[in-house]
Design goal:
Layout (H helix, E strand, L loop, with lengths): L1 H27 L7 H31 L1
Helix pairs in contact: 1-2
Length: 67
């Protein structure tokens, strides 16, 4: 029972993380703000998005099979 709850909490956390960091990327993608620092920040946000998407996929599959 706690394993299912943990998987559900991680799944929801991954969804919220993905939404927050995708919206952060969208907010930073303005032509007048583009400089080297913003590009580095966008790359870091993209890495976090990828990790959140991977966590979302893995927790979803884990919930499908074990939860």
């Amino acid at each position: 029972m706690t394993f299912e709850a943990t998987l559900a909490a991680l799944h929801i956390l991954a969804v919220l993380t993905l939404v927050v960091f995708l919206s952060s990327q969208a907010a930073l993608c303005r032509a007048e703000w583009m400089n080297a620092a913003v590009v580095r920040r966008l790359a870091r946000l993209d890495l976090i998005d990828g990790l959140a998407a991977l966590l979302l996929l893995l927790t979803g599959l884990a919930r499908l099979y074990w939860g």
